[in-house]
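Sequence in, structure out. First:
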Amino acid sequence: MFFLRLIQRSFARQIRRRALIVLTVALSASVSVAMLGVVLDVGDKINAELTTYGSNIIVQPRAEGVVADLYETGEDSEATAFLDEAEVANVKTIFWAYNIVDFAPSLTGHVTVSAAGTTLQNTAVTGTWFNKELALPTGQEVVAGVSTLRSWWTMEGAWPADDADEAIVGTTLAQELGVAAGDTLTLTTSTGTCTLTVTGVYTSGDQDDTRLYTPLAVVQDLTGRPGKVEQIEVKALTTPENDLSRKAASNPAALSSAEWETWYCTAYPSSIAYQLEEVITGSVAKQVRQVAAVEGQVLGKTQALMILMTALSLVAAALAVASLTTASLVERTGEFALLKAIGASSASINRLILGETFVIGVAGTILGAAIGSGLAQLIGRVVFQSAITMRPMVFVLVVVLIALVLLAATASSMRSILRIQPATALHRR
């Protein structure tokens, strides 16, 4: 009880200075909680943000993928090998099925397009799913298609229905043909002719603006390839690549059994690609390297910046607390000398100082944790438009870091207190 009264009286005599130290600790703890909270959750946020920019895995026929690797001409040529449309739904049956955000098959052909008195030869037309409703073998029902896979497209009009003779036209092609939503197009190939109603004009910002999109069945009929697709675009939530995933991507057989289990059960792009190859006959799944590389680079730089801010805040807090603590203890030299003069040991004085530091640390950390949690949510809402998941590990780390900072700040002062000579100190008073 005597010990507690000493701490209480100490705070009562220097309430402003102690409040300032608590506030300094709270500010440091709040920055640390906010930054560490975002750091541990930012991977999922960045990943989700990058998925808005399209697919990050392409599934192709194995033969077509090998040819593409050997002869990258950059030309928009028709495929010579195909996948079965009936197997496309298997994408949602892999181990990481819940990480598959969206997917859509496609089949491209070249046709003669006529509209409003204008005829264009060798025009690219892509058949795909727009909002396809699928019943999975697991009993689940999902909706897949380019309407969400191409979420960055701007659309004047509406998306076609998957079971109708409709189409959407790229901005560049629409200008060349002089068509808009509501007009009709006539597509002609060596195997047949069909008439489509334009439901919308889209702007993609790339070469897709020079083609038109229509339901997959239409292009299958025009090209004489019923039930076939040339590729499947997959948008998946993935974990940024590391050495293990890159090793597996180059040669999965080189992994040990433990490495294999870790890799297969982690949502790396390479492991998801491998699992897709397992469920699509005769396929090869390739990562869109630009997306994977950007994800890893952005995540690494963001985490490094936040960790640096956390470290700087702790250093600043240590310096501020050390300065304030030293000043406070110097003012109390006479008090400590008197305690020594009446028989108090150095150990008891150290316990008093540590007890005061403990109270300051607890108060500052609790206040800082509350402020930091709110700050983390603000960052999440402003930057990522979603809440930040605060993991318990964040608070454990902050408590440990603040404790180390406070101990380091008071250590030098405690050593000087131990060297106090009661007679000399009281005489100077």
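Second:
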Amino acid sequence: MTLKKIPKYLLLKNGVVVDPFHNKTYKKDILIKNGKIFDIGKIEISESYDMIDCSDKVITHGFCDLHVHFREPGREDKETLETGSFAAMSGGFTRVCVMPNTNPPLDSPESINFINKKAENAPIHIHPIGAVSKGQDGKDITEMGLMHEEGAVAFSDDGLPIQDGAVMRIALEYAKLIDAPIINHAEDECLRDEGLMHEGTISTRLGLPGNPDLAESSMVNRDLELANYVGARIHIPHVSSAKALDLIEKMKKYKDDVTSEVTPHHLFFNHEDLITYDTNLKVGPPIRTENDRKSLIKGIKNGIIDCIATDHAPHTIEDKETTFDLASFGMIGLESCFGAVNKVLCNDSNMKLSDLIKTLTIKPRKVMGFDNDLFSVGKEAEITILDPNVKWIFQKENIKSRSINSPYIGKELIGRVLFTISKSKVYQNS
């Protein structure tokens, strides 16, 4: 890996430009001057230009991830804003939203300000998501308005779902006033109980407590109905089941501010992959059946699911190299994201590359209200250069996160990010 300051003039030559905002694909050069788009077209090589030969490569918008955990403050041994930024750039991401389940949680205007100040020197754009409730206890609502003024782009208690419907209603009403989405971890804790994986034939074979898809779908149904009643924005994170997807599809027919995301691992794996007791596949919500996986693929292809988010969740070796019941939930996913989803969606399921790129760029940006027109002259360069056809084996050496809890190690992926340009920095994968 190399991270360098962008030269005064950087020419991206001979690439295929995929512009998801204007829905155009064309072969043109892009000239960057002082970190900003200077010209797009047929550009002659100059001695004063540094150049990246993009022949047979795709140039597109920098990816945007709405759901990552960078663990700072409190668990810097797992990840920091700095190390998380390197992992993001390795995966082609120039903009991420960090979840509030830190220690202490991001539940005050001061904590939001801390993230923003700490992230100023990061090579990517980092946006904090504020907690819905104080201490993430699901009871007392935080100062959402003041946190929004400090830069909180959305609100969530993350892995601690808001169980009390009255609290959720109040949160949605406050969020409506500031036009920010609520992101509620969609699991009913009573139905989830002590479930460690999807409740089904495989959990029975392995002797592990199951987490039924009903735990997700019942909470999704409640949250959708509440959001519709209040007239607020709702974003459903890491959809894992066909049942939840059906509910989202029905609500979207008459409510246009319902959005959702799916993770690469819910598209790539099914519960049969847990037969080896790989603790890196222990996630919440759990990886479900092949039918659920195929339904999620269909959901992202037909636009019911809006975008892809990694739910990048770093953990120490001690957190994962233990018995399945004691292992922490979560996996990292930034570095492997494009190769995994490109393999599943484009290579195996005939999705157009341009449509996949939309789920990683303009669609997540739209959810948060970020600027989408990145290929206009004068805009700061947020660019990802990738090879969509290369086959490669994901290895520990490809991980730039401080943690290594990835189930993709040893897996063949298709498509790889080569360069990422963000905040006047150029990152190159080795």
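Remark: The radius of gyration is 21 Å.
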